[in-house]
Design a protein that fits this description.
single chain; 127 residues; mainly alpha; 61% helix
Amino acid sequence: MSRVFWKPVGIVAFLRLPILPQPAMAAVSAIWKALLVLSALGIFTRISTAGAFLLGTYLIGIPESFGKIHHADAILVWAMAILALSRSGDGWSVEALVRAARRPEEPPRPKSGEYTWPIRMMWLVMS
């Protein structure tokens, strides 16, 4: 798109994030998709969810800065932020399977309210 339409919004404006060249943007997009897959599988969950949140915020924010705000995209940024801050790798994940295999005598983690706030926060975001 032409730079004539460039009007940074939100985090892009606040941090003064630049538009990367097309090859760099393609690389960032590929890394983001890989981080999303790692997050979904529960591999390096803390790092992959935080990275997916940061790169996703950038990748979703850049098109928003060209004159058309897509309100449906914002929920994705919030979902990635919530997952990055939660203990999403403790349940059904590769990390949990590896932990259980390495320490079979360790009892499972007790039920806690720590595991309920992410879904309740998403309810709030969706409402």
